[in-house]
Amino acid sequence: GVFSSRGPEGAGAIADAAPFVVHDINNVLAVIGGGLRLLECQDDAACRKAIVGKMEEAVMRVALLSRQLLDAARPRPKSIDGLVEGRRLAAMAGTLDMALPPDITVHAEIAPDLWGFNADPEELYFALLNLCRNAADAMPDGGAITVAARNVESPAGAAREFVEIIVVDDGEGMPEEVLSQAFTPYFTTKAPGSGTGLGLPQVQRFAERRGGAVFIESERGAGTLVRLFLPRVHAAGRPGSVVGTEIAYTPS
Ligand code: ADP
User: Fold this and answer.
1) Burial of residue 42 (number of CB atoms within 10 Å: 0-12, 13-18, 19+)
2) 14 C-beta closer than 6 A to ligand 1
């Protein structure tokens, strides 16, 4: 199946999710409250232990939920966009494997004549890293990720020219019901603590803020392909705009 970032989940989706997270937190607090009332009149030690275990789990869940909210609400440093060109993207892609498990390799295939595009290099790096982490998570026994970039004249009939960056894995893929929710903030299939469900929404926001888009194609058991489209920017740039300024990229 294919799923795209266009739809009800727009750029403000993280803020929109806050009431739902608060709702979740209240539900978990209700569980804890119920557990406490049960404990009060519980004489059996084994039973008390089970209740306390459930309540500890619930406390951890609330802690995770509130951490997610804080992360989403934290003011981010302002984006500093600049012209990103093929060689910079290639250098960046070449450092991605350092942040991934040792049994994961990253093949970078950046078209030598790649057009320039506008992005904050730091945000671009984290967007790519998010996608590669997801790919690595889908290949628990290790494997290869391809990060490729090419020029696209007019994807799906669009009037503009785009640079397309794809991240491909041949991991476990997503069933339809996961794919259709993949861009929903806080949606995760990962264990609490290892997934926040904010990776793809962040990538989506990164693309859409620059007039781009992100699409996912995935097949259960076959793998996943994420397509990131960013509008072409000409090196000349308009006077007074940051376009055309090259910004030093330092992986962190
Ligand atoms: P997180 O990685 O923290 O769970 P994301 O928003 O990045 O949050 O991803 C949401 C969900 O989409 C993941 O939990 C996973 O189920 C699914 N997913 C994302 N990328 C991939 C991939 N490359 N292969 C398989 N499933 C994926």
Assistant:
1) middle
2) no
